[in-house]
Amino acid sequence: MAETARRPDHRYGNRPTMKDVAARAGVGLKTVSRVVNGEPGVTPDTERRVREAIQALGFRRNDSARVLRKGRTASVGLVLEDLADPFYGPLSRAVEEVARAHGALLINGSSAEDPDREQELALALCARRVDGLIVIPAGDDHRYLEPEMRAGVATVFVDRPAGRIEADTVLSDSFGGARAGVAHLVAHGHRRIGFVGDRPRIHTAAERLRGYRAAMEDAGLPVDDAWVSLGSTEPARVRDAVAAMLAGPEPVTALFAGNNRVTVTAVRELAGRTRPVALVGFDDIELADLLGITVIAQDAAALGRTAAQRLFRRLDGLHEEPRRVELATRLVPRGSGEIPPA
Amino acid sequence: MAETARRPDHRYGNRPTMKDVAARAGVGLKTVSRVVNGEPGVTPDTERRVREAIQALGFRRNDSARVLRKGRTASVGLVLEDLADPFYGPLSRAVEEVARAHGALLINGSSAEDPDREQELALALCARRVDGLIVIPAGDDHRYLEPEMRAGVATVFVDRPAGRIEADTVLSDSFGGARAGVAHLVAHGHRRIGFVGDRPRIHTAAERLRGYRAAMEDAGLPVDDAWVSLGSTEPARVRDAVAAMLAGPEPVTALFAGNNRVTVTAVRELAGRTRPVALVGFDDIELADLLGITVIAQDAAALGRTAAQRLFRRLDGLHEEPRRVELATRLVPRGSGEIPPA
DNA sequence: TAGGCCCTGGACAACGTTGTCAGGGGCGTG
DNA sequence: CACGCCCCTGACAACGTTGTCCAGGGCCTA
Asked: Per the database record, which ranges form the HTH lacI-type domain (chains A, B) (predicted)?
């Protein structure tokens, strides 16, 4: 039979389309489009008929199709390390608020600190044709984004710089913060200060280590290799590292912790000891005030906000050299950093 | 001139399309599609030519267009309250992991506890044609989702039940948790126990209050209206509430805090006092172990994981009555809940 | 050697929307 | 009364992809 009705091959569970609405309202397709988009040039009476049909059918515009036609998706992507980390929640939220103010949705993904996964995610977002991309790098080579950026995907890197590529970047002053934190310990009389940090291929970790070394050098203090421990932030590893620095005949009298996770574990480890050990941690932590933990605080929300604002300025057509912004950190003394050497 | 070339009206910053790739490789459009999608029926030699062209042009498939054709977007939406809240970060991350295992992306949105914003977000996600939707309700009427659900959008509610609509729901046992927490205080000798909670229109807040009352009644204890305070979780309000309960001739000797934010503020307020007051809080908190805060812990990640698994089972075609799952809570004694009455 | 089958490749329509353009009707003005 | 203008309205193409279907060529078999 020649007339087997040509049935569409999928249909979203049979959602009504503008065509259906048009048929029901007895108007043209384009008129429905006009009503839905609030475009002028529709009689109040026609508009009412269309709205009734929309109601009756439960029609909702398919933004996927719209995107295809318009070329902008009104969405931005955010690739971060781990949404469950209390540092990234506020950052993501800040990005979301800026996006919302610009009428855009946010798609985020966690790289779990895996460069391959970062790339996979970022490219998947590009395939979705996000208008812009904010990336907290896990890897150190971002040339894979070059074609995307050339094709017009605005891209901003946050928290850590991009690798082998020029792009807008928003950072915290890790070097300066760590230097100030260690100097604070020095000022309170410490001469043997330990540093427990994350893997040094992570830019912030390397910078903080550099800040530590700079502060020690500023004070004319030597740095014993045994005082420096870099590696994963696994609690077990950090505990071992702390324990090692506190053992032996010449133990450290103070610790600088390279990020929030290290700080938490270090506090737990120190809590079990009798001899007081001074501690300054990078990143603020909830309840740190009650525990009296001195920290170098960075403003995660400000990082996200700044990056997002930059992104949307690019999307609004800003055309200038990529810029690198460093946000200041803040020393918050709360007791643990003011303990004198034992 | 009749021949002014018809220029496309937008172009994504001029991204190459399959057509461009086909032209460059000297093959047909569909052949490119086959290569990109790993479909069979392409000679190795042809495939190589296509891949070279893709490389040379920096082509990346436009998933927006793909979605339009295929009907599935491979993305799910999550509407939560506030991504910056340490409770929701892990929940969102757990959803993301399940989605990733199913090859889907996650689009997040924060409702800021505003029902209108919740609706706006959820419907925007539907317009993007997410395959499924996970909602942590801010409002108490979700009939607006009925057309969407009928149209095939799988929907699961988490943490709080849906309002005026039947749908899959995953909850923590707020009632039982609060009841157990208050019973714990009673077991340690307390008879005057205060309850500081969130606004009662929030389902979990109401349930926890109910649990509190049940535990008091179980123990045959009266509840003075002055011991119950419900309202925003603003620190100022919570501090005032706590202060009020501790003032007067017959102050409470123990407090039950209705959620993580209340707990944090209560701990801060109690820290400034000399007379010890027992405290049990709902939700676990980072570092609560060090501060010795006894809590009723709920597993945010398990909530998210369970909900997401349910969602994808629906997407895989599961067809059965909506189900309501309640996850158990866990009492974690750490000291503050075991303080005897002063 | 003819017939049939498989393998490769391409033309075409369709997904649901928006931009362009042209037509028709009403109304004001000369 | 006629002309022209403006306001509504709808037909049509296009966005970039995938599903369907058909054509051509090579190879195997009878």
From this structure: 16-70
B63 vs A127: CB contact, 8 Å cut-off?
yes
CA nearest to A285, candidates A277, A293, A274, A275? A293
From the Cβ of A66, is strand C under 7 Å away? yes
- Round the average pLDDT of chain B to a whole number and report it: 93
In this structure, what DSSP letter does residue A341 have? P
Q: CB of B41 under 7 A from strand C?
A: yes
Residue spans of chain A under pLDDT 50: 1-12
**The total number of residues written for chain A in this structure:** 342
Most B CBs within 10 Å, among A55, A108, A153, A291, to test the B interface: A108
Residues in contact with B76: Cβ distance below 8 Å, sequence separation at least 6, in sequence order: B95, B99, B104, B105, B106, B107, B130, B131, B132, B133, B134, B308, B311
Chain segment A207-251, per-residue pLDDT in tens: 999 999 999 999 999 999 999 999 999 999 999 999 999 998 999
In the sheet that holds A154-158, the strands lie side by side as A324-327, A168-172, A154-158, A132-135, A75-80, A105-110, B105-110, B75-80, B132-135, B154-158, B168-172, B324-327
Interface test with chain B among A15, A59, A289, by most B beta carbons within 10 Å: A15
Quote the minimal CA–CA distance from A289 to chain B in Å: 9
Cβ atoms within 10 Å, residue A18: 21
The answer to whether A126 and A153 have CB atoms below 8 angstroms apart is: yes
- The pLDDT value given to residue A14: 77
Give the model's pLDDT for residue B13: 56
Residue B3 has pLDDT above 90, yes or no: no
3-state DSSP call for residue B336? helix
Q: How confident is the model at residue B41 (pLDDT cuts 50, 70, 90)?
A: confident
Note the pLDDT of residue B11.
39
Please give, rounded to a whole number of angstroms, the shortest distance from the CA of A137 to a CA of chain B: 18
* CB A182, CB A335: distance < 8 Å: no
Q: How far is A333 from chain B (nearest CA, A)?
A: 17
CB half-sphere exposure, B129, CA atoms < 13 A: 30
Residue A109 has its nearest CB partner, among B105, B271, B285, at: B105
CA B33 – C1' D22 distance (Å)? 18
Q: What's the rounded Cα separation, in Å, for the pair B71 and A11? A: 6
Sort out which chain B residues have CB atoms less than 8 A from A130's CB and list them. Answer: none
| Residue of A85, A127, A290 lying closest to B61 (CB–CB) | A127
CA–CA gap between residue B231 and residue B268 (Å, rounded): 18
* A95 neighbors A304 (Cβ within 8 angstroms): yes
Q: Under DSSP, is residue A169 helix (H, G, I), strand (E, B) or coil?
A: strand
Q: What is the DSSP letter of A221?
A: -
The model's pTM? 0.92
Which residue from B93, B109, B287 is facing A83, i.e. has the nearest CB?
B93
Q: Which residues of A302-320 are buried (b: 16+ CB within 10 A; e: fewer)?
A: bbbbbbbbbbbebbeeeee
- What is the 8-class DSSP label of residue B133? E
Q: How many A-B residue pairs are in contact by the CB < 8 A criterion?
A: 173
Per-residue tokens: B155:
């929907």
CA of A330 to C1' of D12 (A): 62
Shortest CB distance from B286 goes to which of A10, A123, A285? A285
Residue range A81-136, pLDDT digits in tens: 999 999 999 999 999 999 999 999 999 999 999 999 999 999 999 999 999 999 99
* Contact check, Cβ <8 Å, A290/B301: no
Q: Which residues of A38-63 are buried (b: 16+ CB within 10 A; e: fewer)?
A: eeeebeeebbebbeebbeebebbbbb
- 8 Å CB contact of B106 and A107: yes
Map tokens 């709080």 to a residue.
B160
